[in-house]
């Protein structure tokens, strides 16, 4: 399946792309557009204005995708808190990882194209997922 | 692109600020002397001395319910917008400020209001300077408050001081993010915060708190 989003990927879009590939569509192909009019007809847009998988009611797009696709994995919702704070920074959640992750993603967007950002950030989110999975299972910080 | 300070500087103030900068602000100095690092928007303003681009959000929200109005107001305040008139706010244009206002425009529409997003250039440098000076003054007041809170927390008991330090560091980051035209008060707040951190580090007993 094809998925479209705005070019110039930052935290929310990088996290959404990871979520889509890992949990919704392993063969996902991403198209980056600079204008909503360029979204291919056969693709699903995300993190763009006026689309279903965008910001809604104070949620960032990552949270919206979790809701729309009824993903209830608590580890994903923990990551959603981090992405929300990194993207919106409205102090809705306590996510000390957020500022650091935001800086890493912004730096990536300065050193490579969007494909590169997704290639690098994918394993970062894998690691984040594993860390929080273990933390949840252990009930404390994993070693 | 939010981090590219100085992209929207008019030459005089930039010089004035550069003179005041300490070593901790070397990024900003670099930007000031390396205009090619600026976004395309500011390149034009830096080279020609003409006003830079601003992104404007025009909006109308129904008077009732008041919830969405309050939420919007809080979000606009957090972004540090300049209120041009009733229902019209502005930020220096870059990818991030534009995106932030785009999402807010959607929020306004979702709440039954009307919203428009514009990219505009002040017609005169003086008008832009006035706008930026007002924004800098608002930030200056926030930095002064922060510095005051830091000084007050310095004499608090150790536990309270540690809590205050965490909270004030968060506030510092939040003000920084919406600080497009850094006033000298920024440095004053930075010094007060560093002092509070130094006092807290010196006098805090070995607290068995794991988090680094």
UniProtKB/TrEMBL annotation, chain A:
Which intervals hold domain ChrB C-terminal? 3-131
InterPro entries in alphabetical order: ChrB_C
Q: Which Pfam families match?
A: ChrB_C
Q: What is this protein called?
A: ChrB C-terminal domain-containing protein
Automatic annotation (TrEMBL), chain B:
Q: Which domain of life is it from?
A: Bacteria
Residue ranges of every copy of the ChrB N-terminal domain listed in the record: 69-199
InterPro entries in the record, alphabetically? ChrB_N (IPR046858)
What name does the UniProt record give this protein? Answer: ChrB N-terminal domain-containing protein
Species of origin reads Geodermatophilus ruber
């Amino acid at each position: 399946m094809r998925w479209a989003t705005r070019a110039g990927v930052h935290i929310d879009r990088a996290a959404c792309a990871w979520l889509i590939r890992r949990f919704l569509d392993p063969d996902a192909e991403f198209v980056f557009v600079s204008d909503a009019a360029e979204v291919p007809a056969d693709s699903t847009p995300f993190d763009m204005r006026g689309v279903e998988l965008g910001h809604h009611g104070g949620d960032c797009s990552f949270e919206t995708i979790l809701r729309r696709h009824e993903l209830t994995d608590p580890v994903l919702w923990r990551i959603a808190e981090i992405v929300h704070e990194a993207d919106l920074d409205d102090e809705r959640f306590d996510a000390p990882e957020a500022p650091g992750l935001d800086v890493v993603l912004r730096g990536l967007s300065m050193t490579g194209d969007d494909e590169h950002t997704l290639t690098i950030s994918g394993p970062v989110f894998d690691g984040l997922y594993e860390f929080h999975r273990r933390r949840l299972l252990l009930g404390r910080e994993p070693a | 692109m939010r981090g590219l300070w100085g992209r929207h500087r008019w030459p005089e103030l930039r010089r004035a600020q550069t003179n005041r900068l300490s070593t901790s602000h070397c990024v900003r100095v670099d930007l000031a002397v390396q205009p090619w690092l600026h976004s395309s928007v500011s390149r034009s303003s830096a080279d020609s001395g003409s006003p830079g681009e601003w992104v404007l959000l025009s909006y109308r929200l129904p008077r009732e319910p008041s919830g969405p109005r309050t939420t919007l107001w809080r979000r606009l305040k957090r972004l540090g917008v300049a209120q041009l008139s009733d229902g019209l706010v502005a930020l220096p244009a870059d990818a991030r400020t534009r995106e932030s206002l785009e999402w807010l425009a959607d929020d306004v529409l979702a709440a039954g209001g009307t919203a428009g997003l514009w990219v505009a250039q002040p017609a005169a440098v003086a008008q832009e300077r006035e706008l930026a000076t007002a924004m800098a003054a608002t930030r200056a007041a926030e930095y002064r408050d922060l510095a005051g809170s830091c000084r007050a927390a310095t004499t608090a008991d150790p536990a309270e001081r540690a809590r205050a330090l965490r909270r004030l560091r968060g506030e510092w980051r939040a003000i920084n993010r919406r600080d497009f035209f850094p006033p000298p008060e920024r440095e004053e707040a930075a010094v007060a915060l560093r002092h509070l951190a130094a006092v807290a580090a010196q006098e805090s007993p070995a607290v068995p708190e794991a988090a680094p």
